[in-house]
Design goal:
Layout (H helix, E strand, L loop, with lengths): L9 H14 L3 H14 L4 H13 L3 H17 L3 H17 L3 H15 L6 H16 L3 H18 L2 H17 L3 H16 L5 H17 L3 H18 L3 H16 L3 H16 L4 H18 L2 H13 L7 H8 L3 H14 L4 H17 L3 H16 L4 H17 L3 H18 L2 H17 L3 H18 L2 H19 L2 E12 L2 H8 L1 H21 L3 E5 L4 E5 L2 H22 L5 E13 L2 E3 L1 H12 L5 E4 H6 L9 E3 L8 E5 L4
Parallel strand pairs: 4-6
Antiparallel strand pairs: 1-3, 1-4, 2-3, 4-5, 6-8, 7-8
Length: about 650
């Protein structure tokens, strides 16, 4: 080495290493090297932007905010006003995505003070894009469209590839939402093809491609969604974009769920939502939790479903229609109707968001004996689907039409729509939806006196529900089958274990708590008991005001469920400081079953045994205890049952 030469400084070495790592998408090396370089000497604005990008891709997204703020200052100090404004806009958009609107607007105003609100530079295009996104969130559709058009114009005029792709993607989604689905998809695909061809920056690539896949999913165009998922996956694998494969996994899992692969889909969703937590990728995480909740709903795991749906809601995604359909399955038709109506009221202009809610609205309205409301919702759904009749959308419309026509007394037209829906769902490859269509078709055929055809469709639907693990659907169809058999044969004798539950001191408790608190506690009681009965293979025959009349096929199942109820109440008391006291009575006996109801002396005895119990007590007759395998009890005793000539022997089941 000559005397005039000097070795490169450690900062220069680190900077060179970091820049080279950024070029080859080695994010971890880039982050470490650029961080080390900044410790030695201040980085330029460009290098700080590179450091912020590497921070995101090594799952340190929180650090990227502080780094970008330093980049904003560095660009300003260097006199690079345009880039300083761009970084301010980038921060504004990111804060906006995270729901921190006030901070977002402050950064946007800083950008406008630097370059002015109007102009033709690429930062002005980003300002128009950010303001369009804000207008959309506020429901100002005309303003959002006008600003999106401006952003696209600036993107094309300046040749700024990232701006153009993001503006096209956003404008395309607006056009889809307002009913121009085909035109909107063309715009979004222009952005997406640039993304997967490597023409955009890494972050913009992921955003544009994932927005494309989300649009396909929302339009239920699953074939197109699958193609874009695979294309995006291939690009992300070669470019080491570790955040975006998690998003693709969520979308792939959504498609898998449609095909009935619920186990695989739920595993993928759990993995992906966990991975994305580190990247603070809130919108795709919300999608993942919603999809997870819907799979659990279909399985009948309503508790698990609500946990996932709450996570989706906390990240900004509506839990509807899944939560409303849970309430409907629980028999809470009014609650379901209120939930779905509120969700529709929130979606006043996005046609495709409404299309995802309207089928649930139709089903809930019919369950609430409101065919007029169902017909209105069907007409709106038909108008939306006409704009983009994908196989899944058209199949959903035909099933909805079948439901409404059957309720209106036209089973022939209903059957025609439902047969067409089954063919389309086969094309999509959705076994659950095929079973749902078969279920309704069986009722239409029965109304046409085609009992053989109806029995075949009902059994095919039931077999598919069982194969998929759709427990609630299967149990409902099993009850329907029994009801049909009962109608054909008249009342049948059945050996069952009957349980009656009752809240002790409900009037005094309601008065002490007040109406609102009492209603919340009563809802918790109803939800908890219904969930435990379902888990215990029981059947709620009907509600008795402050309690339930429940039937079990075995005494052991009845006793186990009673114990689970009392323990759940005890645990609630330990957590909250108070809880409802419930008394429970059990009796195993033969009874007459007619459709979904039971009658006879055995039912009467079970009700009277429950009336003898105290709060927190489980009383069971000797017959029940013997059939249950003699669980632990106190000393049996003889009691008189009103209306029964002989005494009954009962004992208190020890459950603590």
């Amino acid at each position: 080495m000559s005397e005039s030469a000097s070795p490169a400084s450690p900062a220069a070495d680190s900077l060179a290493t970091g820049r080279a790592a950024i070029a080859r998408h080695d994010w971890a090396t880039a982050f470490d090297a650029l961080t080390a370089a900044e410790l030695e000497s201040p980085l330029s604005g460009d290098d700080l932007e590179a450091l912020a990008l590497s921070a995101f891709f090594v799952a340190r997204s929180a650090d990227s905010f502080d780094i970008r703020e330093r980049a904003f200052k560095a660009h300003g100090a260097a006199g690079n006003v345009e880039r300083s404004a761009f970084v301010a806009i980038d921060l504004a958009r990111e804060y906006g995505y995270r729901g921190r609107g006030a901070i977002a607007m402050s950064w946007l105003h800083r950008a406008e003070r630097l370059i002015g609100a109007e102009g033709d530079t690429y930062p002005h295009g980003y300002i128009a894009l950010g303001r369009s996104e804000a207008a959309r969130a506020m429901g100002d559709v005309a303003g959002a469209v006008s600003l999106a058009e401006r952003a696209v114009e600036i993107g094309r005029a300046t040749g700024h590839a990232d701006l153009l792709a993001l503006a096209l993607s956003h404008f395309g989604s607006l056009r889809i939402a307002t009913g121009e689905a085909a035109a909107g998809l063309v715009m979004m695909e222009e952005a997406s093809i640039a993304a997967v061809n490597g023409e955009l920056s890494p972050f913009t690539t992921g955003v544009a491609a994932c927005q494309m896949i989300s649009a396909c999913r929302d339009l239920t165009d699953y074939r197109r969604a699958s193609e874009w998922i695979e294309a995006t996956d291939r690009y992300c694998a070669t470019a080491s974009l570790s955040a975006f494969p998690g998003v693709c996994r969520i979308h792939r899992a959504e498609v898998s769920a449609i095909s009935g692969a619920w186990d695989r889909a739920e595993v993928e969703l759990e993995r992906a939502t966990g991975e994305l937590e580190a990247f603070a990728a809130t919108p795709p995480q919300a999608d993942g939790f919603y999809a997870m909740g819907d799979i659990r709903r279909l399985r009948g795991d309503f508790v698990g479903a609500e946990i996932a749906l709450r996570e989706a809601h906390s990240r900004g995604r509506t839990p509807q229609p899944a939560l409303a359909m849970i309430r409907l399955a629980e028999g809470k038709t009014k609650t379901a109707a209120a939930a779905i109506n509120a969700a529709l009221a929130d979606e006043t202009w996005d046609r495709w968001a409404r299309s995802r809610l309207l089928p649930a609205k139709i089903e809930i309205a019919l369950a609430g004996d409101d065919p007029a409301a169902a017909r209105t919702a069907l007409d709106e759904l038909a108008g939306i689907v006409e704009g983009f009749p994908s196989p899944a959308l058209e199949a959903g419309r035909r099933v909805a039409a079948g439901r409404v026509l059957l309720a209106e007394g036209d089973p022939g037209a209903a059957a025609g729509n439902l047969r067409g829906a089954i063919q389309l769902w086969r094309e999509v490859g959705s076994p659950y939806e095929i079973a749902r269509a078969r279920e309704v078709l069986s009722r239409a055929l029965r109304a046409l006196d085609d009992d053989d055809g109806a029995d075949l469709e009902l059994q095919a639907a039931l077999d598919e529900y069982r194969r998929l693990g759709a427990r609630v659907n299967a149990e409902a169809l099993e009850r329907e089958q029994r009801t049909i058999e009962d109608r054909r044969s008249g009342p049948v004798q059945a050996r069952m274990t009957f349980m009656f539950t009752d809240i002790v001191g409900s009037t005094n408790l309601a008065e002490a708590l007040g109406d609102q608190a009492w209603e919340r506690l009563l809802r918790w009681h109803d939800d908890t008991l219904r969930g435990l009965v379902r888990s215990g293979s029981g059947e709620v025959v009907n509600s008795t005001g402050d309690g339930f009349f429940i039937a079990f096929a075995s005494a052991a199942a009845g006793v186990d469920c009673a114990i689970a109820i009392q323990r759940a109440l005890r645990d609630h008391r330990a957590t909250t400081g108070f809880a409802i006291a419930v008394r429970i009575g059990l009796h195993a006996a033969d009874a007459n079953r007619r459709e979904r109801d039971y009658s006879g002396m055995g039912v009467h005895v079970a009700a009277r045994v429950a009336a003898l119990a105290g709060g927190g007590e489980i009383l069971a007759t000797a017959e029940t205890l013997a059939e249950a395998g003699d669980p632990p009890t106190d000393t049996p005793r003889a009691v008189s049952i009103r209306g029964v000539t002989s005494e009954a022997r009962i004992a208190t089941v020890i459950w603590t």
